[in-house]
Amino acid sequence: MCCYDVCSPAGAVSAENWTYSKSRNRAFLVSREGESNWPKSLCTFSNVLTFVCVCLQEQSQAAAELLRRQEELENKAAELDRREREMQSINVSGGRKNNWPPLPERFPVAPCFYHDITVDIPVEFQKTVKIMYYLWMLHTGTLLANLIACLSWFAVDGNRGVDFGLSILWLLLFTPCSFVCWYRPLYAAFRIDSSFRFFIFFFIYVCQIGIYVIQSIGIAGWGASGWISALTGLNKSIPVGIIMILVAALFTALAVLSLIMFKKVHGMYRTTGASFEKAQQEFATGVMSNKTVQTATANAASRAAQGAFKEQV
């Protein structure tokens, strides 16, 4: 039996080659390989406990590293499975068919977009895109509730026809525009890692947050059941005022949630390697590859050449 001091540099041993036994409040590291040339010294039981704790810490770190690698492999496998399902759907259908908005087959208007977060969006971004989609749905529901609140207000106060009319306009205008102008750019930005689309989303979404703030304030005559309008309606009718207060709370919640998600998306954008220079390159590439731009450029060059030739003649 050999005893080694685990506190000394020479005693820095691994748990695979050494064990210990306790006797009379003393502990001995026992070599599983026989004698060693290291200096021998008596070890206290507390030193052995320190040695064991260090070994357990190393094992826990190794286990955490294995779990991290396993998670990375699972994410890569899910990403490969997503791409494989996407390719299969394209091959089977002869191309991706638009599926949003989900309309009946016999409906006279066909879907305008292809929308499938599990297929298009990488796994690590799917949760964020889903939250933004639910936020857009809340946006649409709030505009519908605003229309109902303004209608109720108009029912108890005949001078509020302008607010009711504008609430209809905001529902019909902001519902499709919000989907096309800020949700679709965000969807495409995460789908193809586009810096240019990220910048489109940031610019328009800042404007959207500003609109939420104005709507939550509720200036009379602007078609929004905000806090000022709700307090005014409360003086006319308590039930109508309660409905308008609920809508004002929804507008306020939209403003707060949108600001939180804006910061979250911006943080994720910074981790993707996107930049303003990359956005400029994407814009220039997209413009030059556009057939309309190419045709206009060719026509302009042809006219310039013809004009120069006529001047020489």
Question: Short summary of the structure?
Answer:
By secondary structure, the chain is mainly alpha-helical. The protein has nine helices and three strands.
How would you portray this structure in words?
With 313 residues, the protein is mostly helical. Among the domains are: 9-69, no CATH class; 121-274. Helix content is 71%, strand content 4%. It has 9 helices and 3 strands. It has helices at residues 45-93, 117-120, 123-156, 161-192, 195-217, 227-236, 238-271, 276-289, 291-312, and strands at 18-23, 26-31, 43-44. A 3-stranded antiparallel β-sheet has the order 1-2-3. The protein starts with 17 loop residues before the first strand and ends with a helix. The model is unreliable at 1-42 (pLDDT under 50).
Topology, element by element:
Blueprint: E1 18-23, E2 26-31, E3 43-44, H1 45-93, H2 117-120, H3 123-156, H4 161-192, H5 195-217, H6 227-236, H7 238-271, H8 276-289, H9 291-312
Antiparallel strand pairs: 1-2, 2-3
Helix pairs in contact: 3-4, 3-7, 4-5, 5-7, 5-8, 6-7
Instruction: Encode the helix/strand succession as letters.
Output: EEEHHHHHHHHH
The helix tally amounts to: 9
Q: Which word captures the global form?
A: extended
What amount of the residues lies in strands?
under 5%
The main β sheet shows up as: 3 strands, antiparallel
Helix-strand category: mainly alpha
Alpha-carbon distance between the termini?
110 Å
